[in-house]
Amino acid sequence: METFGRWLGSPWRRSVLAVLAGALPMLAFPAPALWWFAYGALVPWILLARCAPTGRRAAYDGWCGGLGFMLAVHHWLLPSLHVFTVVLAALLGALWLPWGWLVRRFLAGRPSAGRAAAALVVLPSGWLAVELVRSWQGLGGPWGMLGASQWQVAPALRLASVGGVWLLSFLVVAVNVAVAVLVAVRGVRAPAVAGLAATAAVTSAAWAWAPRPDVDGHVRIAVVQPGMVDGTESGQRRFDREEQLTRGLAGQRVDLVVWGESSVGFDLAQRPDLARRIAALSREVGADVLVNVDARRSDRPGIYKSSVLVGPDGPTGDRYDKMRLVPFGEYVPARSLLGWATSVGKAAGEDRRRGDEQVVMDVGHGLRVGPLVCFETAFPDMSRHLARDGAGVLLAQSSTSTFQHSWAPAQHASLGALRAAETGRPMVHATLTGVSAVYGPGGQRVGPWLGTDASTARVYDVPTAHGVTPYVRYGDWPVHAALLVLGALCVSEGVRALLRPRRRAPAPSAARARTARGSPARPGR
Mean pLDDT across the stretch 394-400? Predict the structure, then answer.
């Protein structure tokens, strides 16, 4: 241990360990999907910051760990953004500076039982504050929230209906803190055991008492996934493939057909021939077709990504323009300052325009749907607002073709389970190239995923439900509670600093007089 301590004393070695420790939670997300690993993945990072020699070093451990975390969960961006991915990860990793300091503040040395118990609340609250800040769309959005790793765990999905993905993140961090205390802090294990017991009790209570969605019927929704289409005139050839697949749905009693993001690369007002072809498909299949147009609009300046509903007589007028754009992929933040990113990667050459408001569409058969486009499914508030506005089914139109051979498609598809569980509404995630997926109102999978190697159209019997989940009713209350905890901590620390007795500076000692020979003069002589 002494040798390891000396080895760890090297700043750069410690920084490397912090980066690696911060990257560990990546394994809990798809594609590895080791959801259980999330409950111990933060322990090495916590133990490292806990034993930091100073608060400044602990904060730096937090930063390095944040860099590792952000780089790991976004590693699939490297082929597109290259070195800029590391720059972004380093900038966002700085959000964990205070969290690293808090770890040492509450767990360093041999903390009292009170400090260990407080850590079980303060450290998860600090983590939620980080997730809240980085969830701002301008900073990249809430991709890789720790609670999202629990998308396939039934008790966790029930908890999501109560407090959203925020509550899951809080509890996952709390369990990690408890495990770290059990491993490294002797004599104060009672609070850690109590914290684990409380987590189990909360989960059991949610399982027993949280309202379940009241399933009241089924709708048949078809997902059209054309697969990879490259080369010259790929937009037209993709449309032809989607048309062919949709025509094969005739006679299957479909209530709605959904195409993926950027499934139509031309403005339908400028290409009435395409609008007529989609309308003919609607008549043939007996259902409206929801397409996604990625093109320069004819009625206003700029490029938009828009969900457009087409019925038997053509476009119905229902249209949703994507509101939250992908940084660098669809626009460059502060382009005058960061425009150089287009020269080192595949950043957007021209900024797309944003929509103004979310839209709930009536597609017939008594069905109202709320469309989302691409990574808007990562934002819990957007699906919550659609559910409150009366959407019976949430629809996501996506395309991860740029990241086809990475973990991104599976991770993106998994987000639909959280959004369904939070709102009590089924979610259909339709993509161009996979992974496409459907989830019931409790977040459970409906039918098979359509993988990245599939080019097909599939009909899903989607259960519909009514009722309002606690999360839809009360919103992001775990975040508000976490901010109250951190606010109380700041007040407490401020009061303690004011009441702490100030050390008096020692009185300066009088300089001894010296004789001509340079020796001190003795008093009385």
Answer: 94
